[in-house]
Design a protein that fits this description.
0% strand
Amino acid sequence: MTAVPPRLRPRAVTPNRSTKLRRRWTASPLLLGVACVVPLLAGCSLLFVDGPPPNHGRLAYFDCTSSRLAPVTDLVLGGLEGIGTVAALAGGRPSSDSSVMAPAAVAALFVASGIVGFQRVSRCDDAKSQLMRRTLEPTPNPPPLYQPPADPWLSPSPGRGGGWRAPPAPPAPPAPLHGAASPPSPSPSPAPAAPAP
């Protein structure tokens, strides 16, 4: 057998500063990929939860998100990321390592998104309950859409008291003048005689 020259023989590699830097840079594309994908997944509440419109008090109808699914999902994912951050810190790694900072930032993003989502859902619930109260309140009778003009031949106008009224009485005769001869007064007629039995 031929002997292998020492420079071609495999040797044990001891980790030194250059290999650690190489490992960190090889992990960077993975971290970069995670950093690009996680914001798309994070913040479901920021993207999908709509609060009530600003002028909801004057609208007859509006729609907003009343489901708490997205905020709860954000808080659960933020809690899981927080647990991952605490586990990474408990593993003895320094806090400046990107494997600790990235989960902490993602956890903060999820928790902030969940809090904003719960606030929007709460405002939506309040606005919808106000809308329901407004629609169920009795309103005064609105004026009719069209009121035809009063017909003078059928009835008097509504403002003058409706219904039938008798025509006015004829005027009284004029009083006699003083010093003029008064007309003769009618004489009483004799009563008829009673029939004989």
